[in-house]
Amino acid sequence: MALTGRTALLAALGSLPVGVLAPSWTGMLAVNAPLSLAILCDYALAAPVRTLRFTRSGDTTVRLGDAAEVQLTVTNASRRRLRAKLRDAWPPSSWASGTERRSSRHTLTVPAGEQRRLVTVLRPTRRGDRQAERITVRSYGPLGLATRQGQHRAPWTVRVLPPFTSRKHLPSRLARLRELDGRTSVLTRGEGTEFDSLRAYVPGDDTRSIDWRATARQSAVAVRTWRPERDRHILIVLDTGRTSAGRVGDVPRLDASMDATLLLTALAMRAGDRVSLLAYDRQVRARVQGRTASGNVLATVINTLATLEPELIETDARGLSNAALTDAPRGSLIVLLTTLEAAPIEEGLLPVLPQLTQRHTVLVAAVSDPRIEEMANARGAVDSVYDAAAAGQAQVDRRRTADRLRRHGVVVVDATPDHLAPALADTYLALKAAGRL
Known about the structure:
Elements: E1 2-3, H1 5-21, H2 25-45, E2 53-58, E3 61-63, E4 68-75, E5 82-88, H3 100-104, E6 105-110, E7 115-122, E8 128-131, E9 134-140, E10 146-153, E11 157-161, H4 170-181, E12 194-200, H5 212-216, E13 222-227, E14 233-239, E15 247-248, E16 251-252, H6 253-270, E17 274-280, E18 284-291, H7 297-305, H8 317-327, E19 333-338, H9 342-349, H10 353-357, E20 361-367, H11 370-376, H12 382-407, E21 411-415, H13 417-433
Parallel strand pairs: 3-11, 14-17, 14-19, 19-20, 20-21
Antiparallel strand pairs: 1-10, 2-4, 4-7, 5-6, 5-9, 8-11, 9-10, 12-13, 15-16, 17-18
Helix pairs in contact: 1-2, 4-6, 4-13, 6-7, 6-13, 11-12
């Protein structure tokens, strides 16, 4: 049993005249006895909480930043009307800060033998699985003096998926891909390694593309056109070690890498290439085996990335290289989303790079911090001068690291979180156009 504020107010109002006019045990009994009797009657008339039944329905997935609706159906199996306040508890990250109380608490009335449906709106602030916690119900009597209280569980899980904000860049990259594949009419066809068709020569065409046999059979000069190869294998490797936990602005490095992964996956899938995913630090954290465009690889990758979190340990570069060599057939494009910090690259990645570059095309993509450039260009106070010197040195070290990777035959993409995804997609298209994929 729990007493309400109304009960305390009535007790206080009844005690005032007794304390002033008849301060005695008899006067106190005259006030409290009827109040106690009313409380007991009210408690007895309150609907029991134990017999309530709860079922859930609604959304099971939601993109980060969007809203999910979960319906909770309350069935009152007792013979008394239920007047209750209900708290539908979820983890704190299921709502924006300060909105949990308004979103999780409900007031309802359910007649005997009937049911009512409540809607809890979730707006998660983090990726991953959000599981419903306890349902706390406080059932009030008709006088509002006493309550019955109890808890129930109604399991439900909502998976919060990566937001995929870079999908706005997909239409323009698909248009470029159609040009490379020859699906749109353009003056200059994409240069690839698979023969596409013949067309008439126009000034500016590469003379090496002239088909002399076809030219001999007709009056006009015929030129071969090419298209990029299809069904190539792309292995996207996410470094989930300690460096991926760092934040660039409000975005964790790992989340920026995920966004770039999704755009590249969507683009490669439309290009007819096989896409695999590997998340690794000192062990495999997630793996999606290579699939073709016929499979819904993008949905699989999104679902896999939803629960992936960075690990505060140093990445084992040798183990990562071995895992990549195991998953990628010869001639694949290996896209490694990691950091360009000098120490992890020089001590970890560079010694094992020859194993990868001998068999595959390797692309390293990293998230750069725009704040470093701002600090490097800062002027004014003495503290700013020191910050500018440190930031300038960091930029120099980063460029040197990228140059060392390029000397080993690695393609390097270094961009801010907002530009990493489109830059990676453009590099992929450029490799296709150059016949390297």
